[in-house]
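Worked example 3. Consider a protein that binds zinc ion.
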Amino acid sequence: MSPCVFCDIVEGKIPAKIAHEDHLAVAFHDVSPKAPVHVLVIPREHVADLDAATPSQELLLGHLLLLAREVADREGLGNGYRVVINRGADGGQTVDHLHLHVLGGRPLSWPPG
Ligand code: 5GP
Ligand code: ZN
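Given these inputs, the predicted complex is written out as structure tokens:
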């Protein structure tokens, strides 16, 4: 059994509301949304967190960021949105598979808690 819930989503072992899939990435709606729109963008391959990404994954990281923008556009977030990567305990990371949160659909306060 895979120890990674997001790898399980990539492999279709755990259901998720998929927003987009391509050869490098998957975007799906967060199971516990923190805003009217809350989509997670993840690489297909397992990368534990931002610190685990290597220079050879530069194109992958750019792909994820552009996909986050595309998701925001498709979700109608023309009024604004936020893209967040939590890293480590103090960053609030709870799933150890790199993911970008795309949040929007309401005004988002700053700074985060
Ligand atoms: P983190 O706290 O690591 O930055 O974000 C992890 C996110 O993954 C959380 O917002 C959490 O609600 C979401 N999440 C955890 N498990 C699942 C799941 O099985 N399915 C989906 N769709 N989202 C999940
Ligand atoms: Zn994984």
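Take a moment to read the result before moving on. The pocket of zinc ion (ligand 2) is lined by residues 4, 6-7, 46, 97 (CB under 6 Å). The longest strand covers residues 37-43.
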